[in-house]
Amino acid sequence: MTKQSVYLDYAATTPVDPAVAAAMRECLELDGNFANPSSSHAFGQEARRRVEEARAQIAARVSAPPGTISFTSGATESDNLAIQGAMLAQRDHGRHLITSLTEHKAVLDMAAAMEKQGYQVTYLACDSEGLIAPEQVEKAIKTDTTLVSIMHVNNETGVVQDIAAIGAICRSRDVLLHVDAAQSIGKVPVPLDEWTVDIVSLTAHKVYGPKGIGALYVRPGTRLAPLLHGGAQEGGDRAGTLATHQIVGMGRAYELADTEHEARELAELRDRLWTGLSAIDGVRLNGHPTQCSPHVLNVAFPGIDGESLRLGIAEIAVSAGAACNSAAPEASHVLSALGLSDALAGSSQRFSVGRFTEPADIDYAVERVTAEVERLRQLAGAAPAWCTN
Amino acid sequence: MDYSLEVQRRFHSPDNIGEYAPEAPGIVTGEAEDRTLNVWVRIQAQVDGTVIRSVRYQVFGCPHTVAAAGWVAATLPGRASDALRELDMHELREILDAPVEKLGRLLVLEDALQACWQAHVEHENGQKGS
User: What does pLDDT average to over chain A?
Assistant: First the structure.
């Protein structure tokens, strides 16, 4: 098979859909909707109309009223605003946060920052397939718990948590629930009209929208202390001039994200990939085999150094299951939470498929990965057991 | 991560991998590992008197470690056996243009070479004693 470039890192970011780029261009130049949406003149009001149209598109994708959506710079800011904003707003009621060990760093680092401010944090462990039992949340809730933060789709393994059940528990205990749904849109339904959640982080660039724009769903009546000060935009939740072109791009991206249709196609690609890779001796799937998003496949290749595998298949874009640039390679906190050894976590690769992935891309990746794993195992020869366990 | 051409060449096209047949004469073996760094290296040298005739290796680790082992296996043949204990990993890091955080992995290779040297010394002493 001839050498080609294959992008299988859609969970890291997606290309901007051409239709999204076209919508964004309409907001950048003199004859477009470039004006400040907060201005009262006609130019500004037309830009405002585009912003509100985008807000409605995003709200529709998650089955929420448009007025519950506020714009941010991305999911990291959304997570920070959700956690710090909710906890500061409720600090007179309690100072205990519950989250999980498998959250994105945007949540974990914010939680650590809250600990430094004197708040208490409980980190829930997951099972060996990455699932958090809703009962764990219930047991962890204390009288001074004010917020639970659990992600919907895990960014490394694709494991999907039971947000409906966790939400019901939080509501029954009068505790706010924040959900990071950055990986969900277009792959797994986010039915906010069915879930009892209070705050949800969203982003554009995982769903063929631009980088640098995200949103936060805030259930009416939920109070957040703002992170940014300097204007009354977004109802005071988030100061700063609204980035019309980014917002319009996000709105169009969410409008295009046909979850039901796309999820089916992604699942076929993912299954094709796993069928091919599972023929390699000893490989194991990291995460739950069925309670998972259709776009992510995280695989451990025992006896292989992950960095070497990535260089060996350098024409194929995949992500590490572990960071390996440091002197002592730090195992992925997510895979460690699943119970993988450092060697297994270090061997793991995250493959993620997307809208522009073709079956031929999958077949090429399977062939190349299979050959490279065999080559690296020959290099390792009689390596001791710890390299493979 | 960026990889130098030297690393890429030795990683993608390694020579002298594997091991010698057990009955091959003059073989000394050194092995080292660091589990915290996910590195394991086995070096075998065929030493004839005081001259290294050939080297083979097996390696589990990152591309820089693989390339470093390959460089050693290509460079040592023809040199005096003392070279097993004299290779400078700081110099090798510069040759490979490896980032400084990779030095720890190269030092595992140095440990394997030192073990190889030790095995050679013990072999020589055994020969003299018999």
Answer: 94
Residue of A nearest to B98 (CA): A325
Asked if residue A373 has pLDDT above 90, the reply is yes
- The C-alpha atoms of residue A274 and residue A279 are separated, in whole angstroms, by 9
Domains of chain A are 6-14+258-382 (3.90.1150.10), 18-256 (3.40.640.10)
Domain ranges of chain B: 5-119
The DSSP line for A185-216 is: TTTS---TTTS--SEEEEESTTTTS-TT-EEE
Question: Of the candidates B38, B62, B63, which has its C-beta nearest A342's C-beta?
Answer: B38
Q: Which two tokens stand for residue B47?
A: 């030493």
Domain B5-119 = CATH 3.90.1010.10:
yes
Subunit contact A381:B36, Cβ cutoff 8 A: no
CB–CB of A326 and B101 under 8 A? yes
Give the ipTM: 0.94
A303, A308, A326: residue with CB nearest B63: A308
Which among A312, A378, A383 has CB closest to B40?
A383
Residue of B nearest to A304 (CA): B60
**pTM for the structure as a whole:** 0.93
Best A3, A305, A336 residue to mutate vs chain B (most B CBs within 10 Å):
A305
A170 catalytically annotated: no
- Convert the pLDDT of each residue in A25-43 to its tens digit: 999 998 899 989 989 999 9
pLDDT exceeds 90 at position A235: no
